[in-house]
Design brief:
Chain lengths: 115, 111
């Protein structure tokens, strides 16, 4: 069975540009979450979507936005990129639920470099 | 929000040694997971263990939810065990599936 997939694997942008990252969850999983991991730290929660609705948002500015499609895949958009947005962006999928989501499984990540 | 503390931050072992990694959390949790992050950044699921004890080969984990801690045991360590180990929890107060990660334990296993 295919795991969580993310694209692209690497991305280089300049300050002020916009970027879109993509994630496909494990087949049958309805919940997708996004995390940002800067070097030397643990991942930080950005968004969670379940059944195409936003269920949670972390402490990130409005430059960060996301959406989930009818096939449960998801996109993360970041506008007006800053140098500090350089990080590994991780997508996680889980079965999802109204209260409990179950075990989360992570994709390989997209490494974003902002110059 | 919930706080997650991992110890030790760094651990250096000789191949064949055993080790214990600890994760303390500040509130009741619905979910606790242990991950191993490889050098390419991939988070590998080790255990989904909100309570109780589980074993998988040379690795085992125990979570004592009432005392708010979890332990990851690695026995007969191998060089391929090197990497960062993360504990992550989902607290009961926040809806959805928001995992809060600790800062990780950097494990180095020397041949």
């Amino acid at each position: 069975d295919a795991g969580v997939t993310q694209s692209p694997t690497h991305l280089i942008k300049t300050r002020g540009q916009q970027v879109t990252l993509r994630c496909s969850p494990i087949s049958g999983h309805k919940s997708v979450s996004w995390y940002q991991q800067v070097l030397g730290q643990g991942p930080q929660f950005i968004f969670q979507y379940y059944e195409k609705e936003e269920r949670g948002r972390g402490n990130f500015p409005d430059r960060f936005s996301a959406r989930q499609f009818p096939n449960y895949s998801s996109e993360l958009n970041v506008n007006a990129l800053l140098l500090g947005d350089s990080a590994l962006y991780l997508c996680a999928s889980s079965l999802g639920g109204v209260v409990l989501s179950g075990e989360q499984f992570f994709g390989p990540g997209t490494r974003l470099t902002v110059l | 929000g919930i706080q997650v503390e991992q110890s030790p931050p760094d651990l250096i072992l000789q191949e064949g040694a055993n080790s214990t990694l600890r994760c303390n959390f500040s509130d009741s949790v619905n979910n606790l997971q242990w991950f191993h992050q490889n050098p390419w950044g991939q988070l590998i699921n080790l255990f989904y263990i909100p309570s109780g004890t589980k074993q998988n080969g040379r690795l085992s984990a125990t979570t004592v939810a009432t005392e708010r801690y979890s332990l990851l045991y690695i026995s007969s360590s191998q060089t391929t065990d090197s990497g960062v180990y993360f504990c992550a929890v989902e607290d009961q107060e926040t809806s959805g599936s928001r995992l809060t990660f600790g800062e990780g334990t950097q494990l180095t296993v020397n041949p």
